[in-house]
Amino acid sequence: MTLWRSRYPRNVYPSSRLRSLLLLSITTFLTACQSYIRSTESSQNGQFCIVVRSYPMLIAMPGQGSDAPGEVNLYDMTGQKLESASLEMVQLFEGATWATNQVMVDLGLNVETWQLPQEQENQPDSREPSDACTRFELEKSS
């Protein structure tokens, strides 16, 4: 008497080890793709902050570490993003020149001029940082 055998395995779902490995791989990939803060630059009055973020390069040859793409963002005291520009390489960012009502951002090949909103009255609030870049410096150090 022969028992009938199925051509298909009983367990069509991946094993728990395989699922764990797959989940770990996806989590590692997503973590590696997140941007990180490369530098910050505050305005003279501390009301605004330029943040340069870099995206990691998953594949790079030796010496190409600073060729990573990124973006430059302008934030106010509340952490609201006011302006943004993308960079082909973060090493192209050469700084910002602050004026009373605008900031000129040198992106290497071109210079963008962003208008700054009117300054808001500084009312002492213990929850607000004293400088617009403080929250980003804390994020950068952690």
Topology record:
Blueprint: H1 16-32, E1 36-42, E2 48-54, E3 70-76, E4 81-87, E5 95-98, E6 102-106, E7 111-115, H2 134-141
Antiparallel strand pairs: 1-2, 2-3, 3-4, 5-6, 6-7
Describe the structure.
The mean pLDDT is 78. It contains 2 helices and 7 strands. 18% of the residues lie in helices and 30% in strands. The N and C termini lie far apart (68 Å). It is elongated. The strands form 2 sheets. A 4-stranded antiparallel beta sheet has the order 1-2-3-4, covered by helices on one side. Strands 5-6-7 form a 3-stranded antiparallel beta sheet, with no helix packed on it. Strand 5 and strand 6 form a beta hairpin. The chain has helices at residues 16-32, 134-141; strands at 36-42, 48-54, 70-76, 81-87, 95-98, 102-106, 111-115. With 142 residues, it is an alpha+beta fold.
Unreliable runs: none
| Cα gyration radius (Å) | 24 Å
Q: Which H/E pattern describes the elements?
A: HEEEEEEEH
Shape: elongated
Number-wise, the strands total 7
Give the integer mean of the pLDDT values. Answer: 78
Keywords:
single chain; 142 residues; alpha+beta; three-stranded antiparallel β-sheet; 2 helices; 30% strand
